[in-house]
Design a protein that fits this description.
single chain, 12-stranded mixed sheet, 9-stranded antiparallel sheet
Length: 820
């Protein structure tokens, strides 16, 4: 889109009837004000420009939506919208917006009109109507690695490239992995469906850039949620806020206990976090760039006694232009397109952009490469042969590709388990000038309610992004735009308990299915109420919650009324977005309950790795960028070992007997807060449900798995309670060679989990094999209640040896422990 209203005869154009309908809806939804112009032919032309910016097919779909909205007015008002007077027309649209079935239709139909009303050339710059941004003059830089960057559209059809690893995607998952492997001397090729942009590309209006550099993914369910993701080198890191948090300890505990993932405790992950934070130059926002909104939030939080602070970000040279989410025009934000990708190229990696992967090549069930097609130019195919294949397209596009290819889905869980951190915002009018679009858009935070899974983070937006998000229509919307320089906006997100799914949509694109449950709906409304209280405490004259049908709030009593009616407010009436899709290719130790193992390699296809947000089991409750990057750094070791192993000889399946043995262990466990330990005992049976698979996996890093069942006795906690679990054996690992996991119900009715590891290294074989480090935790929260050490004593060796044999029947294991 360009400023002014030039006619583009080659772009989308409304027919005369549809143009009249656009004007009719605009008259009602966006009436004339001080800065909002009266709807006319120019408005129609600007709506056409907005649709052109969205995409080639946007106009056709939009016309269908307009006509449906026109007809929806008949049962409501007795006539079509264009036949009604303006006041009746507005009431009809408001009524249609209040219905679960048609709410989304109103939002989608009115959004381009709202955008058009604030992008015209005469819109006041004093309200944030800038036509351009402060892109510093910069000449095209020459780099030594330029020759290793190629546009797929310039390569000859059938080009073949051989490397150690091919990585599909250059965002938070793929780029750190590429850098780590290239730094270790491996031949790495990155493939990216988008282009390789620099800061010269990040000019123009934010709405224009959002259309060019973001996918606006919409969910289907009981409410509409917009989930933006990036579509250029750097992925979503190029168009996110830059906020940086480490993974919370309780989340990593959940991964260990619920998913059986080892090596993801805070101490083990610390070096990976430190590596990421050093590369991104993470630090707190500078006060001078936080903007007036930070003062307002701090003032309100102090009045209420809430904890608040400046957020940590990856933008050491930020100058506060406030457009982090639309591409940084100064390269201050260290997204992967300016950090990890150039660093990987400097280490010898290659990048082919504008390349869409269409096929994963397999040989004897092992991934050995990919085939990609150029998205423009000659649209030829590029064939990449590799010792390992890594998919890093994100939590939406990676599962879509696996579903399209029918790969790695024996569990049936590809695309399932989606979490999205639903987010909302609240606007408030202040007497003081706010100019919220100036300064870091997400620079400040309130963590007072993080324990409830509600985290408040800034969300100040440019006017062309904010205008279509406000659910208000009519005079209320126009007042919002006319007074935008006095509007403060702040946002929040929740760690959702709802779970969505990614399925294949039209043209094989990812489609989100997501139904918000009642618990999350109530927390979203609680977020609206809490934020309204904060703004009122900070001195707001009026608060506008983002809830359709709820008018402004002017006092705490009004907030209490909103809270009282929360049970009657459906999820469809909330103005929602989300920014952190995770978990659609679940990581876990059990192939029946996950897609990839703890090494990021798919359970089904050897040599095929997934390293991105899809393997991060959400929700995190914090922005996930650093988590995904740290897990990528962790995955580098596993991918490297696969590269160095190369193609393994084919294993011939033969009938093998089961393992049978009886084991006795004893030791001490101490409960939190207890001074002395007390006795406990575990008696379990051992069997291999699939003996062929068990012995085959003993050769692999993922190890063989035996099933355990029996009873558990712990003084004061459990008396001969049934327990079940697994014993995993990892002969190829130096640590964690034997891993025990047992679940049981205590005498108090609560569920508990015992996790034990025998850690073996070449120098401590005897002590490692005879020592089991244990942790007993609440299964629902992952909070440890006891830790200790169990031992395999010399007196137990002969009884164990006498029972050890290979037989095709169940075996028996006895483990005795001391604990409280």
């Amino acid at each position: 889109m360009a400023d002014g209203s030039p006619k583009n005869p080659r772009g989308f154009r409304f027919g005369s009837d549809d143009a009249a309908l656009v004007r009719a809806i605009a008259e009602a939804v966006t009436p004339e004000g001080r800065s909002v112009r009266a709807a006319d032919e120019t408005t129609v032309r600007d709506v056409e420009r907005v649709l052109d910016g969205i995409g080639a097919d946007a106009g056709v779909g939009y016309v269908a939506m307009l006509r449906a909205l026109d007809l929806a007015a008949v049962p409501v008002a007795g006539a079509r919208l264009r036949e009604l007077d303006v006041r009746t027309r507005l009431r009809a649209i408001d009524t249609i917006a209040g219905s679960v079935a048609t709410h989304a239709m109103v939002r989608i139909a009115t959004a381009p009109i709202k955008i058009a009303q604030v992008i015209h050339a005469d819109f006041p710059a004093a309200l944030g109507g800038r036509t351009g941004l402060d892109v510093l003059p910069v000449q095209a830089e020459k780099h030594a690695w330029d020759e290793r960057v190629m546009d797929a559209g310039t390569l000859p059809d059938g080009e073949t490239i051989e490397v150690d690893t091919v990585i599909v995607g250059t965002g938070a998952g793929g780029a750190p992995l590429a850098h780590a492997l290239a730094s270790r001397g491996h031949a790495v090729l990155m493939l990216e469906v988008g282009g390789f942009l620099d800061r010269r590309s990040f000019g123009g209006r934010p709405i224009e850039r959002a259309m060019r550099f973001q996918h606006s993914n919409l969910s289907i369910g009981n409410t509409v949620i917009v989930v933006p993701t990036g579509k250029s080198v750097g992925g979503t890191t190029t168009v996110n806020s830059g906020t940086c948090f480490r993974t919370p300890a309780d989340v990593m505990r959940r991964w260990r206990f619920e998913d059986g993932i080892t090596g993801v405790d805070p101490a083990t992950m610390a070096p990976f976090f430190e590596r990421v934070e050093a590369m991104l130059q993470v630090g707190p926002n500078e006060r001078k760039h936080l903007g007036t909104i930070a003062d307002i939030v701090a003032r309100g939080a102090d009045a209420l006694g809430w904890s608040h602070e400046a957020l940590h970000r990856n933008a050491p040279d930020c100058d506060g232009q406030g457009v982090c989410c639309f591409g940084c025009p100064t390269d201050a934000k260290r997204s992967t397109n300016v950090s990890y990708v150039p660093a990987a190229l400097q280490k010898g990696a290659m990048l082919v952009h504008h390349a869409r992967v269409e096929e994963v090549l397999l040989a004897s069930g092992r991934a050995v490469g990919v085939v990609a097609r150029a998205t423009h130019g000659n649209e030829g195919r590029v064939r990449v042969l590799a010792k390992s294949v890594v998919l890093s397209g994100g939590a939406l596009h990676t599962p879509a590709l696996l579903l399209k290819l029918g790969l790695a889905n024996s569990s049936g869980l590809v695309g399932h388990g989606l979490t999205v951190h639903p987010a909302g915002s609240v606007h408030a009018f202040f007497d003081e000038e706010v100019r919220g679009w100036e300064g870091v858009p997400q620079g400040y935070g309130v963590d007072e309610f993080a324990s409830e899974g509600i985290r408040f983070e800034g969300a100040s937006l440019p006017i062309d992004i904010a205008a279509p998000t406000l659910p208000a229509i009519g005079a209320r919307w126009t007042e919002f735009v006319d007074r935008y320089d006095h509007v403060a906006t702040f946002g929040y997100m929740i760690a959702d308990s709802s779970r969505g799914r990614v399925v294949l949509g039209p043209q094989g694109k990812p489609q989100i299915l997501y139904v918000m449950n009642d618990y999350d709906r109530r927390r979203m409304l609680r977020g609206q109420a809490l934020l309204s209280r904060l703004f009122l405490a900070a001195g707001a004259r009026e608060v506008l919650p983002s809830v359709q049908g709820v008018d402004s709030l002017r006092s705490v009593k009004d907030v209490e009324a909103l809270e009282a009616m929360s049970d009657s407010i459906g999820a469809h009436r909330l103005d929602l977005s989300a920014y952190h899709p995770l978990g659609t290719c679940r990581m876990g130790s059990d192939p029946r309950r996950s897609v990839v193992s703890g090494s990021n390699e798919t359970h089904d296809v050897s040599g095929l790795f997934v390293v991105d947000g899809s393997t991060v089991n959400g929700p995190l409750g914090v922005n996930p960028q650093v988590t995904i990057m740290a897990m990528s750094e962790r995955a580098a070791g596993f991918v490297e070992r696969r590269i160095e192993r190369g193609v393994e000889p084919r294993i011939v399946r033969v009938a093998l007997p089961e393992v049978e043995f009886t084991e006795t262990m004893s030791g001490t466990c101490t409960f939190a807060g207890a001074g002395t330990p007390s006795d406990a005992a575990f008696t379990v049976r051992c069997s291999a449900p699939d003996k062929q698979q068990f012995f085959r996996r003993l050769r692999d890093a993922e190890g063989g798995c035996l099933a355990l069942d029996g009873t558990a006795t712990i003084a004061g906690l459990a008396t001969e309670r049934p327990c079940t679990g697994t014993l995993r054996m990892f002969p190829k690992k130096r640590i964690g060679t034997l891993v025990y996991d047992l679940d049981f119900t205590g005498d108090d009715g609560a569920r508990y989990h015992l996790h034990g590891q025998k850690s073996v290294s070449p120098t401590t074989v005897l002590s490692g094999m005879t020592t089991l480090r244990t942790e007993i935790a609440r299964a629902d929260t992952g909070v440890p209640v006891a830790t200790g050490t169990l031992r395999f004593w010399l007196r137990d060796f002969l009884p164990w040896l006498a029972t050890f044999r290979f037989r095709a029947r169940r075996a028996r294991i006895t483990a005795l422990a001391s604990g409280r």
